[in-house]
Amino acid sequence: MTIAVTGATGHLGRLVLDELRRARPAGSLVALVRDASRAQDLADDGVRVRVAAYEDPAALVQGLADVDTLLLVSGSEVGQRVAQHRNVIDAAAEAGVRRIVYTSAPRADSSPLVLAPEHRATEEMVRASGLAWTILRNNWYTENYVGTLQQAAETGEIVAAAGEGRVASATRADFAAGAAAVLLGEGHDGKVYELAGDHAWSFTELAEAASVIVGRPVVYRAVDGPTLRSILVEHAGLDEATAGFVVQLDLDIAAGLLAETTGELSRLVGRPTTPLVEGLRAAYAPPAFPTAV
Questions:
Q1: CATH 3.40.109.40 fits 3-138, yes or no
Q2: Per CATH, which fold does 146-150+156-165+198-261+270-283 belong to?
Q3: CA 204 to CA 22: how far, in whole Å?
Q4: Which end of the chain is more exposed for a tag (fewer CB within 10 A), N or C?
Q5: Each residue of 105-147: pLDDT tens digit?
Q6: Positive/negative CA dihedral, 252, 120, 92, 81
Q7: Per-residue exposure over 222-247, b if at least 16 CB sit within 10 Å of its own CB, e if not
Q8: In the predicted model, what is the mean pLDDT of the chain?
Q9: Cα–Cα dist 251/255, whole Å
Q10: Parallel, antiparallel, or unpaired for β 166-167 and 201-202?
């Protein structure tokens, strides 16, 4: 069985391939990438590297030749993902792929989460493809808050509009292990997995974790949406659209849309998910402060 992974040089795709390489011969794996130079280490290890961007249907069909199972890692370009994913799904069907596994978002078919619509549309296309399918609805990545820690190291604050909301995050490595378990295992066809960390943490807990990691007291300062938007635009330099998107994500967290803990991820990987402090510490790089002269 040949397994292909899209976005194979991205944060999640590369970790999935690391998991697969520990269990399968490298020659049975296909890495679909935009830039082959970023996958030289994979090629050197024997992984079949094929250049096929989400926007290139012909290259996708060629890249998926002789593939049995495909992991479609959702694209990162919000607003363009439905068209990109449609290209991959159509190419998979044309190339004769038997099974597709897709990384989606929590409760994508029913949630008002700002990220859900593109995932919902993709899930519908996957189900209509005629291929065997599995949906992995990944909660938030712990690493998404590394930048927050870097700011906290400078300011002593975490400023957010998340209220008392909680986030059931796990590390990318946790989610990669879950994806690999599904790709390599049996009995997953037609199933939807709601994957999340074992503990849903609050932003007060995030500030406590930040204090431990950055080595200074950090507090959580809760603000409302308009205040956060103003901070992001006037002080962080974000454009209005990006600031609005960030604010809405916080408001979705405040509404509890990322708080569900199901235990399905830890059951898939056969171990507890990585605790918040441990996951953040592994990913954190202290900001470079100017050196006095």
A1: no
A2: UDP-galactose 4-epimerase; domain 1 (3.90.25)
A3: 38
A4: C
A5: 999 999 999 999 999 999 999 999 999 999 999 999 999 999 9
A6: negative
A7: bbeeeebbebbeeeeebeeeebbebb
A8: 95
A9: 6
A10: antiparallel
